[in-house]
Write a structure and sequence with these properties.
This protein is of the alpha/beta class. The chain folds into 2 domains: 20-215 and 331-373, 3-Layer(aba) Sandwich (Rossmann fold), CATH 3.40.50.10540; 239-311, no CATH class. 37% of the residues lie in helices and 13% in strands. It contains 16 helices and 11 strands. It has helices at residues 29-39, 55-58, 60-66, 83-92, 104-107, 112-116, 143-149, 170-193, 203-215, 247-257, 272-277, 279-290, 295-302, 315-318, 322-326, 364-373, and strands spanning 20-23, 43-48, 70-74, 95-98, 123-128, 197-202, 229-233, 239-243, 309-311, 331-333, 336-338. The strands form 3 sheets. It has a 6-stranded parallel β-sheet, sandwiched between helices. A hairpin with a 5-residue loop joins strand 7 and strand 8 (239-243). It is elongated. The two termini are 42 Å apart.
Length: 380
């Protein structure tokens, strides 16, 4: 009888295992940053007020996703009794992040200097709306305000329509992603210098950073769009996308549809410059053409062609797509579906979700008891 040895299960890629994060932020930008850190293996403890993060009730779907793989510890930071626990948490953490308006963290006893007194190697990140100084520092704001002030709503992305917004809070996403990136850079620097770092990040400035990467810092001479790079309505009322930007994509589309719609062969549309110059004529022509078939009809016609085309779907539909399923990009944890961090590392199991979102204060007693006893705590 021959014994067979099963291949070893590859270890999950957790490059931040052992890194400890005290997350005092709420809603989305800060929790997004710490979700990225948690997905990469960091031990993230979410410090919540007694009523919990407002996102629990305002945006439960968002909370469920951004509180995953974290522990919930309830502290009333307005109470003097919390000071001793804050000191222990600061000493425990490698990273602390807060998302209040300037001055609020200091009043709550979790400001940079206050926590640094308990941990001289702390990486401290303030992720506010407009930054810790400047004439706008005390302005109230949300994602839509930061998009407007940062130039992200200046230009329309669709022909013949006013500038609009995505259902995704793009400013918050920019802020959270840049916060995570700079926190990791500061952590790397601390490994070399053993020095602490205070990061002052602004969601507004993160939006401005991304907007200027796309549009520059001077008024562009030409703000015309790429006709054929747009959202269209089909005969059955569904929305689809075409991205006919490069010449080879346009040629592939015109070759398929030129006989059906001879106007596409107009010499004015032969080049990218011509299509942009005559977008007012080409745009309506494409709109009319896309309404001639159902969304599924277009999908079948364009399947296998070199035409960038997709049907607009919801996230709930997207996670059921054959491609997502084949690549194993959805995991079930505690009977809930999550999309883990979308990266694969050779020889390692991709990052996963270790636990579903915790209940308010679920880990308070155990975590604080471990800190008092000086024990090293562990991830969910």
């Amino acid at each position: 009888m021959t014994n067979t040895i099963s291949p070893a299960t590859p270890a999950v890629w957790k490059p931040l295992e052992g890194v400890r994060v005290a997350d005092f932020s709420v809603l989305f930008p800060g929790p997004l940053a710490t979700t990225l850190l948690a997905d990469l293996g960091a031990d993230v403890v979410k410090i919540e007020p007694p009523t919990g993060d407002p996102a629990r009730t305002m945006l439960p779907e968002l909370f469920t996703s951004t509180a995953r793989s974290k522990r919930s510890v309830v502290l009333d930071l307005k109470s003097p009794a919390a000071r001793e626990e804050v000191a222990r948490i600061a000493a425990w953490a490698d990273i602390a992040i807060e998302g209040f308006r300037p001055g609020v963290a200091d009043r709550l006893g979790i400001g940079y200097e206050q926590l640094l007194a308990f941990n001289p190697r702390l990486i401290y990140c303030s992720l506010s709306g407009y930054g810790q100084d400047g004439p706008w520092r005390d302005r109230p704001g949300h994602d839509l305000n930061y998009l407007a002030a940062g130039g992200a709503l200046a230009y329309s992305a669709m022909y013949g329509r006013a500038p609009g917004r995505s259902s995704l809070p793009l400013g918050d996403i920019c802020g959270g992603a840049i916060a995570a990136s700079t926190i990791l850079a500061a952590l790397r620097e601390r490994d070399r210098t053993h020095a602490p770092a205070r990061l002052d990040l602004s969601v507004f400035e993160a939006t401005l950073y991304c907007a200027t990467l796309r549009h520059g810092t001077t008024e562009p001479e030409d703000t015309s769009l790429f006709p054929g790079n747009d959202i269209y309505e089909t005969r059955d009322g569904k929305l689809v996308t075409l991205a006919l930007v490069e010449e080879h994509f346009w040629r592939a589309f015109r070759e398929l549809l030129g006989r059906e719609q001879p106007a596409l062969r107009d010499a004015r549309f032969d080049t990218m410059h011509g299509r942009r110059q005559h977008g007012q004529e080409l745009g309506p022509l494409l709109e009319q053409l896309l309404r001639s078939r159902t969304a599924q009809g277009w999908a079948e016609l364009l399947a296998g062609s070199d035409v960038p085309f997709e049907i607009c779907v919801s996230p709930a539909q997207a996670v059921k797509s054959a491609h997502v399923v084949a690549r194993g990009r959805v995991v079930d944890v505690d009977r809930q579906a999550f999309v883990p961090l979308p990266v694969t590392v050779d020889g390692m199991a991709r990052p996963t979700v270790r636990a579903a979102a915790p209940k308010v204060g679920e880990h308070t007693q155990a975590f604080l008891a471990e800190l008092r006893q000086g024990h090293r705590t562990s991830n969910p």
